[in-house]
Design brief:
Blueprint lengths: L1 H27 L28 E2 L11 H4 L10 H17 L7 E3 L10 E8 L2 E11 L5 E5 L2 E5 H12 L3 E4 L5 E5 L3 E9 L6 E8 L5 E5 L1
Antiparallel strand pairs: 1-7, 2-3, 3-4, 4-5, 6-8, 7-9, 9-10, 10-11
Length: 224
């Protein structure tokens, strides 16, 4: 019994000694540096992009591209009893004004006398925003109804209208068209004689646009 008890005590002593050694070994090493708490690390704020918008024209983005209402924005259309020349003159003014998407209260439109005969060709003149534009018709048939084809080679391009149209298309308040003046002449069914730009105020990115003009004056913008 005595031997058995001693052996048990020796075993306990060894275990205790081993534990003490292990503790001593842990206590003797240099402590590892504490890891930083990621939640406490301050986030580095991104630097704001400095955007120079001084060369752009700023304005609110319209709900839709500018346009006019000929029934309310123009003089009353002559009725069917008016001379054909007066009716075509009003039509010429209506098409030029619609093309421009603005009205000119001082605009005039004149046509020579029109007989309404088959094969007749007539050129009318519209003075709009101090520029003269031609509007011609070629009568293909006459009688109770007069059939004719019309042609408007050029129309007025108004800076305010073009830039507001671009604001709608590009969804940007900051735009610029490199027009030589606030009103230029543009070939219908072709490209405008200038380029436009829009500025992204958040990123500073500038986008260049070509301007395509329909026969009726509406604009389409294409990235260069």
């Amino acid at each position: 019994m005595l031997n058995s008890t001693r052996r048990h005590r020796v075993a306990l002593g060894l275990v205790a000694a081993g534990s003490a050694l292990a503790l001593a070994a842990c206590g003797g090493d240099d402590p590892e540096p504490a890891q930083p708490d990621t939640a406490a690390v301050e986030e580095v704020e991104e630097e704001a992009v400095e955007v120079d918008a001084s060369s752009f024209n700023q304005g609110p983005i319209p709900d839709e591209a500018p346009e006019i209402d000929p029934e309310t924005d123009l003089p009353a259309e002559p009725d069917a009893s008016a001379p054909l020349g007066d009716r075509i003159a009003w039509e010429a003014l209506e098409r030029i004004s619609t093309f421009a998407s603005v009205t000119d209260p001082d605009a005039t439109s004149t046509c020579p006398e029109i007989a309404g005969e088959e094969g007749e060709s007539v050129t009318c003149t519209v003075t709009f925003l101090d520029e003269e534009f031609e509007y011609s018709i070629d009568i293909s048939s006459s009688g109770i109804l007069i059939n004719y084809e019309w042609d408007m080679p050029e129309g007025p391009l108004v800076r305010e209208v073009v830039e507001d149209s671009l604001r709608v298309s590009a969804e940007s308040e900051l735009v610029l068209c490199d027009m030589d003046s606030d009103v230029e002449r543009g070939e219908t069914g072709g490209e405008a004689p200038f380029l436009c730009q829009s500025l992204d105020e958040e990123t500073g990115d500038v986008t260049e646009w070509e301007v395509s003009i329909s026969q009726y004056g509406s604009f389409s913008f294409y990235r260069v």
